[in-house]
TrEMBL record:
Highest taxon listed in the record's lineage: Eukaryota
Name of encoding gene: COX6
Family the UniProt entry places it in: Belongs to the cytochrome c oxidase subunit 5A family.
Localization, UniProt: Mitochondrion inner membrane
InterPro entries named in the record: Cyt_c_oxidase_su5A/6, Cyt_c_oxidase_su5A/6_sf
Annotated organism of origin: Helicostylum pulchrum
SUPFAM superfamilies given in the database record: Cytochrome c oxidase subunit E (SSF48479)
Gene3D superfamilies hit by this protein: Cytochrome c oxidase, subunit Va/VI
Listed name of the protein: Cytochrome c oxidase subunit 6, mitochondrial
Subunit structure: Component of the cytochrome c oxidase (complex IV, CIV), a multisubunit enzyme composed of a catalytic core of 3 subunits and several supernumerary subunits.
Keywords from the UniProt entry: Heme, Iron, Membrane, Metal-binding, Mitochondrion, Mitochondrion inner membrane, Transit peptide
Amino acid sequence: MLRTAVTNIARATAVRSVANVSRPMAMGSRFYSAGHEDESFESFTARYVKFFDNVEDLFELQRGLNNAFAYDLVPATSVIESALKASRRVNDFATGVRVFEGLKDKVENDKQYNEYLVELEPIRKELGLLTKEELAL
């Protein structure tokens, strides 16, 4: 009698577990690129200049820099200038220096990096920013 009860319980458990697995599950589909259009370089530049002009704290600045440098392009000098002014506004010298480090990693060669340095020389002098090389680090 005990054997029959255990066998019936085992069958019922097996049937329940099979029944749960065999039910079709409704799965939603995600469209990751839906609603996004290609952004021109000019609109990218305008968007990030506006973003950095409105930055109020260090976290926002660093998040914006991470996002701006994550794209497969080198940000325009106006974006870099706006980011440097934002680093001064939040009073973080280290982030200003790191902007140049990120720029050096992003460009293809040293010639391009030096062209950016020449273009950004006035803002560097105005804000008192040095590059990593000038700091001898």
